[in-house]
Amino acid sequence: MTEAPTGSSPTLRDVATEAGVSAATASRALNGSTRNVSPEKLALVLQAAAKLGYAPNLSAQATARGSTKTIALIIHDLADPYFSSIAAGAIEGAEAAGLTVTMAVTDRSPDRELEIVSTLRGHRPHAIILGGSRIGDDHAALARELQAYEAAGGRVAVVSQPALPYGTVTIDNHHGAEELATALVAHGYRRFAVLRGPDALRTSRDRADGFLAGLARAGLDAPDRIETEFTEDGGHAAMTRLLDRGLDGLELVFAVNDVMAIGAMRALRDAGLVPGRDLAIAGFDDISAATDVTPALTTVGVPMHAMGLRAIELALAGNDPGEVVRLPTTVVLRDSTPRHRIDSQM
Amino acid sequence: MTEAPTGSSPTLRDVATEAGVSAATASRALNGSTRNVSPEKLALVLQAAAKLGYAPNLSAQATARGSTKTIALIIHDLADPYFSSIAAGAIEGAEAAGLTVTMAVTDRSPDRELEIVSTLRGHRPHAIILGGSRIGDDHAALARELQAYEAAGGRVAVVSQPALPYGTVTIDNHHGAEELATALVAHGYRRFAVLRGPDALRTSRDRADGFLAGLARAGLDAPDRIETEFTEDGGHAAMTRLLDRGLDGLELVFAVNDVMAIGAMRALRDAGLVPGRDLAIAGFDDISAATDVTPALTTVGVPMHAMGLRAIELALAGNDPGEVVRLPTTVVLRDSTPRHRIDSQM
DNA sequence: CTGAAAGCGCTAACAG
DNA sequence: CTGTTAGCGCTTTCAG
How far apart are the first and last CA of chain A? Predict the structure, then answer.
């Protein structure tokens, strides 16, 4: 691959000579304590810089200073609204702090994630943000890499992974799902099924368990649980399976995330049924698509943008190493779970 | 047995001494022409690096080499599926080439974009990718900044902005919309309205114009044009306005992008109407939400992911400076525009 | 093949 | 306030 020579960018020295001052003065005028340089020279330097179209070499700055103005953000999938919202929040927070965001995507592969952390470490970023829950439970290698980074003075913050010993911003998946269950029971529903993701996925587990807990608290039996992929197609497939088997009095299906729920709705329509009327559906996350679908999807709102933002703050503040910030979720009842008729109460 | 001092990462020299070789050899073993170092020393160095958890300081590497292994990606809005898909494609391409992506978002502000280009230039990235169409037509300052970057050996590629003198990957918005119009006319539609974005937005203009051209070719009159925001709320507002004013025989509304179309569908439902039945709707982009809504949205498919990918390739190849890659769009007819009854053909 | 030495562009003590 | 002098961590001639 062609190595484009960056040779001809004007350097600090160019600016300095152009302005008739020393490199040190130029540096001070452009960055350092602006206070200590005379107004005239300051103007001269600024003018020279503008004339030459000077842009400081950030790499050189970084090596000289020993620290960078960047934040490394690792997420699993940019095309997923869940992650891109977190990323948007993180970027906003970073920019507010005058930091640039470097970003890499893992495609949900733990191996790739490990590799990325290792590479990113080379950038000596101010902080590394892990933006999403991990697939597996095997953190050993990742933890070691992170450990090394932190030992060298780096900061780490994690979104939605209460498993690592770093500042973490998360939500209470269990509680959110429990509240949803309670609200749905109050709406008159009694016969549920749960569409859940792979068991290894902590998030999925917590949400499914929370939902069951909510039902249990209302004195209801544990519902059917169908395991499937954590994706829209997964939701579609699971619902199709459910339909094949016969609904048999089922009133509401809770999918552990919105995309699954949306897939389930699609399966219903494919079978000639109307979501919300023939079978109620609820999801989790409140991605923007939740209000685009018809009927609008009942779900649990997750403050994704805020999570990204808070993760940055957590990393930058750097007080309590293991601090956990738990952001509140909100049950959002929409048309996919209309108030249920009383006579179905048993 | 040298222990890395707490608070800083092990350096190349640390690895070198640990392995009992010179820094130069360590450098060669870890990066340079692996050929020129003896197998034993190679092994020694690798082992030492692993033991110390060494991660090369990329900034230092960059200053020494004068070039970086990064690509700077500038995007308008990460939460918008259109841009995040482009970004995902770009990231994929960059990673395939062993490059890291640095990313900044402009929030659709030209000033911010300019500022960002200026800052990014300081990173001396291998290439800068502008990932989306610009709001205004005033490129002067941006062009100058980019010019300076390129003069210093940087590469630039642009997505969807045929206005700048750089490698550009784009789609034929005009043609795509024209084809859509033709297809819809063939479906029996005759009375249209167009929801368009701000006039300054080139993309919006081209799509609206293309649609009109398609109708004109079929011998139909120019339809109503409503200008609004380029967002879902904009689509909602415009459609609401349209409803207030009375549909008056209107059969189909074409919104210049999918999010606007989805907003319009929402407005319809808010008014108690059924999209697709009472009024047909079509959009442009084919974002994933287009298949989530009910009825599924007729639209023009844009290969966003591929655009991001090609932009990287274009930048990296660096042959023709002003090369324009035009990716094909595809009309996708879905349920939001059912075949129209013949008797409405007037 | 390998080490010594000279930078890369910038910052940060130190004297003046 | 400002110039001089050292580096930052790494790469890369240039001799051996």
Answer: 70
Per-residue DSSP letter, A9: S
Q: Using alpha carbons, select from B154, B93, B151 the residue that is nearest to residue B123.
A: B154
Separation CA B35–CA B156 (nearest Å): 34
What are the start-end ranges of the H helices in chain B? Answer: 12-19, 23-30, 39-52, 58-65, 81-96, 110-121, 140-151, 173-186, 202-217, 232-245, 258-270, 289-292, 304-317
Output the average pLDDT for chain B.
Answer: 89
CA distance B219 to B179: 15
pLDDT score for B152: 86
Instruction: Find which nucleotide's C1' atom is closest to A11's CA.
Output: C9
In the predicted model, is pLDDT for residue B135 greater than 70? no
What is this structure's pTM?
0.85
Query: Among A210-224, B97-111, B304-318, which is the least confidently predicted range?
Result: B97-111
Q: Are strands A100-105 and B100-105 parallel, antiparallel or unpaired?
A: antiparallel
- Contact by Cβ (8 Å): A251, A279: yes
Q: Which residues of B touch A100 (CB under 8 A)?
A: 102, 104, 119-120, 123
Nearest to B124 among A53, A59, A101 (CB): A59
Q: For residue B296, give how far its alpha carbon lies from the nearest alpha carbon of chain A (Å).
A: 9
Q: For tokens 């402009």, name the residue.
A: B106
Q: Is A306 at the interface with chain B, CB within 8 A?
A: no
Residues of B in contact with A3 (CB under 8 A): 67
Q: How confident is the model at residue B180 (pLDDT cuts 50, 70, 90)?
A: very high
What part of B 176-205 touches A (C-beta under 8 Å)?
none
Cα three-residue angle A310-A314-A171, rounded to 5 degrees: 50
B54 to A313, B4, B36, B49, B92: CA distances (angstroms): 28, 10, 21, 5, 26
Q: Cβ separation of A57 and B63 shorter than 8 Å?
A: yes
3-state secondary structure of B283: coil
Sign, CA torsion A138/A141/A147/A150 = negative
In sequence order, the 6+-apart residues with CB closer than 8 A to the CB of B127 are B71, B72, B154, B155, B156, B157, B312, B315, B316
Q: What percent of chain A clears pLDDT 90, i.e. is strictly above it?
A: 64
CB spacing of A262 vs B153 below 8 angstroms: no
Query: A118 touching B, CB under 8 A?
Result: yes
SS percent in chain A: helix, strand, coil, step 5: 45, 15, 40
- Test the A interface: residue of B75, B84, B281 with most A CBs within 10 Å: B84
Tell me, yes or no, if B69 comes closer than 8 A to chain A by beta carbon.
Answer: no
Determine the residue of chain B that is closest to A267 in CA distance: B292
CA B315 – CA B150 distance, rounded (Å): 11
User: How far apart, in whole angstroms, are the C-alpha atoms of residue B291 and residue A232?
Assistant: 11
pLDDT of residue A7: 43
Q: What is the mean pLDDT of each run of 10 residues along chain A (346 residues)?
A: 50 93 92 79 92 92 90 89 90 89 86 87 92 70 88 89 85 97 97 93 93 96 92 95 94 96 95 95 94 93 96 85 91 96 52
